[in-house]
Amino acid sequence: MHIPDGYLGPATCGVFYAVMLPIWTAASKIVKKTLKARQVPMLAIGAAFSFVIMMFNVPIPGGSTGHAVGGVLVAILLGPWAACISITVALVVQALLFGDGGITAIGANCFNMAFVLPFVGYYVYRAVSCKASEDSGRKIFAAGVAGYIGINVAAFLAGFEFGLQPLLHHTASGQALYCPYGLNAAVPAMVGEHILIFGWVEAIVTALVVKYLQKHSPDLLLMRQINQDDLSH
Amino acid sequence: MFKKSNFIERSLTGALSFIKGSIFAEGYASRIGFLQSLDPRIKAATFLLFLLQILFTKNILVLLYLYALCLMLAQVSRIDLLFFLKRTWVFIPLFSLFIAIPALFSIFTPGDPLVSFSLIGHKLTITHQGLSGAELFVTRVITSVSFVVLLSITTKHFELLKVLRIFKIPQVFVMTLGMCYRYIYLFAEIIEDTYLAIKSRVGTLVHYKRGQHLVAWNIAYLWHRSYQLNEEVYKAMLSRGYAGEPAVLTDFRFKPKDLVWFIFAAIMFTAMRKYG
Q1: ipTM above 0.95, yes or no
Q2: Is B186 part of any domain?
């Protein structure tokens, strides 16, 4: 899901930086309003949490392992705007300090994983869980569905961004200058593996974590709700 | 994204190698070498120029020249070349090389035929456009990754995070980045300890369904610990004088050497933009 440097052309990189700029500004303003002073370190802790979720290898049938991205889970726990900041910070640390994911592609990566993934997932979670109580099985189901849909929408967008490159950047003779695959190859490749494998990993992890938190720390699931209520008053 | 191996072993190895790798990288940042001696602000700004040049150029010779420059900079900064090549080629460029192979063929990149051959009764044609595109793509990726890795291993990480302020990134982001960076190590250690405990108690043979529950429980528990940590950290911040706005100390020093390097990088950037 992380787009490295060299895959996207300058126009795409520039557009996504421009798109993310107002989103980051709005996120920091909204989070400043909703997070209480004592919850300020929560952003950093949430970012570190987003970073290390990928270190958990999840077993899948056949003896293989995969890993979850955790964007929807962070949105359920912190709310979508705080998740946007936390995941952005995690992506910047990954790109800048560990060379994972590109610096020029940070705008695109943040759009897919720090904006689309948590927002789509969070609103699917809210729509499916409707007004169910915090300890209901419906919330667990909603978390799974949200994880699955969120990651697939983000994967589709990443595939779409890859697939646009040969159309946007090529020489007169038709030679691709960046990612060499068009929409007909890039989108099915990205979406296919997420629909079949990684979407399920994301769904299982998101649903099970919500289940365990319901059972052992229900107050942590309510924290986001309290902050949302504060914003609406 | 997925690998055939036991998930307990893989998580344990992953957390351990992350911590070890980072300690190694910090070791390189503390050495006495050319890039280590530069002001981190100038170094970051000039590396950004190189990255932009790599992004914009359509000429493979410019990319090869920049890659050679990157290896030379690694050498004069006393970075072990074998370590650097291993660190930069695994995983992204090798993966890019692998996915660039189908793009050589006319199925994905139609164009002027270069070589044709038969494989299991199917005629395959490598095109000029396919080969040139794949070469350019892989060279661009490896050159970009090499510059980013070189920047990160020759600069102390906390300095690199402070440098972000020159790009006018709001203080709250810089503070969050700095704090996040420290927690990552703490969390990686927690993951390592947890999986070591699991391994010592239940071994590594766990059914995948049970394994999924185990992973989810560990993620939930990590979140629980994170939340508890939040309270402690906030109290520690208050005790150190935090009053709602973060303050960061600046101790960078601009030297004549930095100016010479900046002029060199700017001239190169301008020349390559003009002729490349």
Answers
A1: no
A2: no
